[in-house]
Sequence to fold (686 residues):
Amino acid sequence: MLKKSEAIDRLLRENPELGQRRFGLPDIGKRIDGDFFNPTVQAIADAIDFYGYEVRDELITVLKDIDLGGGNPTNFKPFPLSIKRMKESLDHSLMFKYPYTEGDDNIRKILLDYVEELGFINDHPYSYEDIDDKGLCVHNITFLPSTSIAFNYIINIIAKPGDVILIPGPNYGLFTIRAERAGAEVEILPLSKEDKWLVNPEKLAAKIDDINESLQKVYNRRKGYVPRVVAFLNTNPSNPTGKVMGESEVKRLEAISKVCLERGTFVIDDLVYRDLVFDEKNIAKPISTIPGSFRNTISLFGLSKSYGLASLRAGFVVADEIIIRELINRIFQGMDSAPDIVGQALAGAYNITEERKKVYNEYFTELRDIYRYKYNLLVSLVSGIDAVDPKYKERVLNTINSSGLEKKEIKKLLEGMPYVEIPENLIPDAGFFVMLDFTKIKGMKYKGSIINTERDLLKFFYKTCRIRFLIGQSISWPNEEELIGRVTFALEDDLMINAFKLMSDALTKLMPGDEYMIRKNRLEDQEQMAHIKVDGWRNAYDNIVSAKYLKSLDYQKQTERYIASFEEYKDLVIVAVKGDEVLGYSCYDIKENEKYDSELVSLYIKPDFLNKGIGSSLLKETAKILYERNCKNMIIWCFKDNENAKKFYKELGGNIVEEKVALIGDESYEEVCFYFDLEFLNENPF
Fold:
């Protein structure tokens, strides 16, 4: 007989994470197959979890923070025709009837007419009688609550275990997580300033080919099939960069479509921000308007961002009938059907009536002006009033002057923020996000703690002014050495002014950092690191390790070993550098299913730079990295006779927990193991 147990207790035992209250974002979730996220996606998930939950403190229940990372559009009236149609539906529809899973055909026809007016065309149509002269019909469309749900279902439909979804970086980080939660793998296509932060078709082709070739070698049909890149996510306009591919980029879009078509890779064309472009003459061009592209493209539209209806959750999908059929099956199996009211709202926003054209022009003329103004308000707060578009300068000045601040505070505010920049080549053309570059404060200190990572950056702002925003790691920012934040300007003016004033005040409290900086090691560092290790042994272990062994150490051989193992260990080594000179380094390892979570394998400082705090900084930075990777403790082995090292580790909070005998060369030596509690070591004076 089964042991008696309270049902709720059993559930908690099986899901211990439910025993902890969370404030902010719910748990990121897990893959449907129970496997781990791949390291790239796990890093994104960790960063989003840190922003949405971990950085927040126990005061959050009584003291509100300021969220500059939110995805809400600005507080503007919802699209009038969507509201009108929903009201009419509530007044006149037979609300007692369950809707069809696929949605009402009349609504689907309205949406079909809309996308066909945009130029959607299927030049390889099926032979059904209801196919129109564009090669399409209502069976190419279905709607449901939000494009996020649609994206989840689509990944389930097109991807088998091991298949890859290729996503540009920077990106909307939650889509990378959703793709892996659905059981697919995610790879990132890094975008670059050289390509104006747009997709480079040649790099896209090379990336797909490289991934497919690697999968061919690894799997060799072990699963009965060879996984491949099954989809490329094309966000147009981009979240978060706000870059748009419109008619001026039609050749680029044609090339993207061709690259994917030739490789059997679907294009998921995310057009959610399409109407939020600043230039109405540069609306994002859907790939399905390009001849030959329709059957290989899955297009996503939604009301949330552009139409002021985020709380409604409404989106629709346009794709080949085969995709739509299975999407409808998944909707039926998961939620039975989308609410009819969702379809009514969509039909109110996406139709080809003259009324809609008139209302659309009035609505978006006003809304785009608001976003352009708010962007310039943010520019003034970051870069100073002289950086503002002359068209909006007086309006921005009036807003700041009427903010209730004292004259000296206003004068300081109009000078912009210290150390922070909006990258020149990342000025948004759409949406309501701005990338801020905080890299200039890297290495600076607050109350003795170094700001070296994006998490340090977020901790600093949260502890000094309770402000949060998304960091570069959460959006796949391609340059790990930069400190990047994604902030929204879809805020009330007073809130934005207050937030940036608080941030600016906090930045003035920073102190200059050390003459050196800590970063990941590079291939070109290996020769210097090899010399530091050899010199370190000869200097520190004289009279501890045999002279014969120390004499056998060789710069060239050590360099060759380091270079040969670089690819394997490059993510487990950090260096302290001054310019191009390496002053010291640490190497660490993460232990799975062992007594201790992690180990500081080695810590070496250039002899001329001993006793300058570099060793402490490297150890603390290593502890920080390990703690952020969910390690709870760290061990360090050192020679029992090395009194200097033992004193150093004790002063930093280490305790001896074990001893062992190690064979080095031809002789044996006693070693002691220092244990560090990483939570204690990471207590931050912020």
